[in-house]
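Researcher: Can you fold this with NAP in place?
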Amino acid sequence: MDTVLITGTTSGIGKAFAEKFANAGNNIILVSRNEVKLQQQQIDLQSRYHVSVQYISCDLAEDNAPDMIMEKIGNMGLSVDILINNAGFNEAGYFIDTSLEKELDMIQVHIKILTALTKLVLPGMIERRHGRILNVGSTGSYMPCPCDAVYAATKSYVLSFSNGLYQELKGTGITVTCLCPGATNTLFADKADINDTLLFKLFVMQPEVVAAIGYKNLLKGKRVVTAGLYNKLLVLSTKLLPISIINPIAQWMVKSVKFPLDKSSPDTQIPY
Ligand SMILES: NC(=O)c1ccc[n+]([C@@H]2O[C@H](COP(=O)([O-])OP(=O)(O)OC[C@H]3O[C@@H](n4cnc5c(N)ncnc54)[C@H](OP(=O)(O)O)[C@@H]3O)[C@@H](O)[C@H]2O)c1
């Protein structure tokens, strides 16, 4: 029985991961901001699966979040065997129009916190020669995404970081897996107001299916896994086609995102 630390568990893919690991008899540490939901989730998982479930309510956009999380886990007398870096969100739109504050928080949650948590759990894993890490990337990890440029850039980091670390840790008993989902039916698209885009109309997977794919490949110690055949084909196309073709296709997928300035108006000064 392992202790599994999962970030972003109150909905979507993280919630499905918590369910999956609890069902398999593991002890769970849930991390998200919404304390009421975390409490309900704790009671629900404990009563259904008879495993120990702890939660840490915390905003991962805060600098001190990783130290605070590790201190609380230490106080619980626990050590992390499996880390699932899942928490994340999107801020889509033309870069000139999007919220810088949200984008900086996104960089913080997707890059800084994911890196720091990994750094903090690794020494214990190496000492015990036992541990698994799963980082949630995206199909956007493979390509630049116009109208979602910061998001895709953060997810490229997740993929690159995971790949590098996977190789470094070979032979230590610790594996790193990067799970790359495509459009998934969670609160993610609603929160970013991209539900009406082609991306979320063409092919959308259920979070339970995505988490099951991640779970299976994490246990196998796989380096990278893209969720679903359609997304695998999409990723393949990014390797075969030049950026001059990929870029407009990626923009077309989110084409309901409105440009903040009317390009057709002669008075409009397009700043780039
Ligand atoms: N859904 C998709 O189409 C899709 C596609 C590719 C990749 N992904 C990736 O999958 C991961 C999970 O997203 P999802 O689709 O399951 O979205 P979701 O349903 O919105 O869930 C996101 C989770 O992250 C938590 N979270 C967000 N910001 C946080 C913060 N600052 N501090 C602590 N917790 C935070 C949320 O909890 P609280 O709000 O309670 O804090 C929630 O539990 C993300 O990394 C996302 O980028 C999603």
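Model: Folded with NAP in place. The first strand starts at residue 3 and ends at 7.
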